[in-house]
Amino acid sequence: MLRRVTERAQRGVVGMEMQVRTELVDFVVSNYLFGEASRLPGDHDSLVEQGIIDSTGVLELVEFLEERFGIQVSETETIPDNLGSIANLTKFVEGKKAGSGLAR
Predict the structure, then answer these.
(1) Coil, helix or strand for 26?
(2) 2-98 has which fold?
(3) Which residues form the Carrier domain (predicted)?
(4) pLDDT tens, position by position, 54-81
(5) pTM of the model
(6) Residue 18 burial (CB < 10 Å; 0-12/13-18/19+)?
(7) Which three-class secondary structure state does DSSP give residue 32?
(8) Contact 41, 52 (CB under 8 A)
């Protein structure tokens, strides 16, 4: 019984992560790739190094994160480990929503 509950909880977490990831991808594609999803790099590829987001784009991204997900992003959290890729963004947002403070 406990195993089933744990498995359901894990599926729920994965589902929420996928929802966050999907919203992040949609934002990046719409705002930085002008709707060209085929230009989106892999989840672990740097959005800055790939030329997708520049310093102004990071500010826009932070504003989106704060408004859409109801989190606060401090200046010290605007680092590649948190915001550098779709995977990092997803992990960062999930951590902030859970209150784990993933900022490095």
Answers:
(1) helix
(2) 1.10.1200
(3) 19-97
(4) 999 999 999 999 999 999 999 999 999 9
(5) 0.80
(6) exposed
(7) helix
(8) yes
